[in-house]
Design brief:
By secondary structure, this protein is of the alpha/beta class. The protein has five helices and five strands.
């Protein structure tokens, strides 16, 4: 065997190994991304986002969510029917729409597996420490003060929570 024949054999072997590694990488990436995309698709398609707010704030938040082009299943929980919070597993609560007692009532109706995002857009006021502690002590809650951060938290919630058929 000549040197050129040996080099050709080595070249063929390394080419096959490189192609196999490349194919493995592509398949692994597809399999890695697929569950994330499926969770997002199921969450977007089958989960409702309940907005707990007064009418004018509801319209603003709904407009923000719909203008993103991502969310379609948006429901409303009106101030006089706060008990409906129990029915939903992803809630956006406009903090300034309610008094402290109403916020406590909303939090008390929250189911343990439900996710609740408090939206407090007013930069001039702070949520009192006692209310922050009460919200923080409940599992699966967060406080957001920017409109597009609200979208990010909703998307993250859809990706990180598993979908279960009803």
């Amino acid at each position: 065997m000549t040197l050129i024949e040996v080099l050709n054999i080595i070249w063929y072997i390394t080419t096959i190994i490189t192609l196999a590694i490349g194919l493995y990488t592509i398949i692994a990436r597809i399999l890695w991304v697929r569950p994330i995309l499926l969770r997002f698709w199921f969450g977007r398609r089958f989960r409702d986002i309940a907005i707990v707010a007064k009418n004018d704030q509801f319209s603003q938040i709904e407009s923000d969510l719909k203008s993103s082009g991502i969310f379609k299943n948006i429901r409303s929980v009106l101030p006089w029917s706060l008990w409906e919070v129990k029915k939903h597993n992803l809630l956006v609560v406009h903090y300034e729409s309610f008094s402290k007692d109403e916020i406590k009532e909303i939090v008390s109706y929250k189911e343990p597996k439900a996710w609740m995002i408090f939206y407090h857009p007013n930069a001039d006021t702070r949520i009192p420490n006692e209310m922050m502690r009460m919200i923080g002590n409940k599992q699966n809650t967060s406080v957001v003060n920017f409109r597009w951060r609200l979208l990010n938290d909703i998307i993250t919630t859809l990706l990180t929570t598993s979908y279960a058929k009803k």
